[in-house]
Structure formats: structure tokens, C-alpha cells
Write a structure and sequence with these properties.
Blueprint: H1 2-64, H2 66-73, H3 76-89, H4 93-112, H5 116-139, H6 149-155
Helix pairs in contact: 2-3, 2-4, 3-4, 4-5
Length: 159
């Protein structure tokens, strides 16, 4: 029996040694994967910082572009106010031009729009002028509207 116990003890030691070796190999693999994951996370963080910096620069460029201000000025009274605020911090001649155009068209609409028949005709003409102005702004051209466009530039030159 002693030989059998000795053989069983040797077998048990071999099994324990194999288990220890397997555990060490698994620990090494886990450590390796953890390091890979850590390096990937660091690289992802660097990429995220770089992309955020690019976005910040792109946003500054978009906000400083007079064409965007001109287009925003065409979007209702709220768009005009936003364009006015955007243009006040970083003035561009292109943005100012269309802010003045839209102010003029809006004031004509307010002054004449309430007259029954004339107001309807003027509203149609103003819509056509607004569309033509928007197309010019999208095209990057500073074309005054056919309705008092040059006068709007004179009257509202302070904007």
C-alpha cells in the first residue's frame, strides 16, 4: 500500500504542478491582454483628444465664415438675431451685407403687410426677393435685392 500511496502522491503532485503551470500561463495571458487593452485605451484617448481639437477648430472656422452668417440671417427673425450676434463678435462684410438685406425686407413686410390687397401683393414680391437673396447668399455672391437693396445697405450701414 505504501507504493500505491506514493504513486498516488506523485500523481497528485504532478496534477498540482500542471494546475500551477496552467494558472501561471493563464495569468500571463491575462496580464498580456490587460496590457494590450490598456495600450488600446490610451491610443483611443489620444485619438479622441485629436478629433476634439479638430472639431473645435472646424467649429471656429464655421462660426467665423460670413457665408454661414448670411444664410442663417435668412431663417426667420430668430435666425436674423442669431446671425446678428454671430456677426457682432467676428464681423464679415458678407454676413453684414445679408443682415442688412434681411432687415430691410422684414421691415417692408411689417410696414406694408397689414394692408389688405397691397399687402398680399407685396408679400409675394418679398417672398421672391427673399428666395433670390438666399440663392445669392448660398452662391457666395453679394447681390442686393431688386427691392431697395442698395438703399438697405445705405440705411443700415451701422450693422
Amino acid at each position: 500500500m505504501s507504493n500505491e500511496n506514493k504513486d498516488l502522491g506523485d500523481d497528485l503532485n504532478d496534477i498540482l504542478d500542471d494546475a500551477k503551470e496552467g494558472a501561471r500561463k493563464t495569468g500571463d495571458k491575462i496580464s498580456q491582454k490587460t496590457n494590450e487593452f490598456s495600450n488600446d485605451a490610451k491610443e483611443f484617448g489620444r485619438d479622441a483628444k485629436e478629433k476634439a481639437s479638430e472639431f473645435k477648430n472646424d467649429a471656429k472656422e464655421v462660426l467665423s465664415d460670413g457665408k454661414n452668417v448670411a444664410i442663417i440671417a435668412h431663417i426667420t427673425i430668430f435666425g436674423w438675431i442669431i446671425a446678428l450676434i454671430m456677426n457682432s463678435s467676428n464681423k464679415s462684410e458678407f454676413g453684414s451685407f445679408y443682415i442688412r438685406q434681411m432687415l430691410g425686407l422684414g421691415l417692408i413686410g411689417l410696414l406694408v403687410g397689414w394692408i389688405p390687397i397691397i399687402g398680399f401683393i407685396v408679400a409675394i414680391v418679398l417672398i421672391v426677393a427673399w428666395i433670390m437673396s438666399l440663392v445669392s447668399a448660398l452662391g457666395g455672391e453679394m447681390k442686393p435685392t431688386f427691392i431697395l437693396g442698395d438703399k438697405f445697405q445705405e440705411w443700415f450701414k451701422g450693422l
